[in-house]
Amino acid sequence: MIKFVHAADLHLDSPFQSLPPEKATALRQEQRTLVEELISLCNTQQADLLLLGGDLFDSAGVLRQTVEGLQRAFAGCRAQIFIAPGNHDFVAPGSPWLREGWPENVHIFLDSAISAVDLPDLGCRVYGAAFTATNCPALLENFRVADASLCNIMVLHGDAQQSNSPYNPISTAQIAQSGLDYLALGHIHSYSGALRAGTTTYAWPGCTMGRGFDETGEKGVICGTLDNGQCSIRFLPLAKRHYVIASVRVGDDPLQSVVAQLPSNTQTDCYRILLTGEADSLDLRALRQALEPRFFSLDLRDETTPSVDLWANCGENSLEGLFLQSLMDELDKTTDDTQRRLLQQAARLGLDLLEGREVLMP
Ligand SMILES: [Mn+2]
Question: What is the pTM of this model?
Answer without folding.
Answer: 0.83
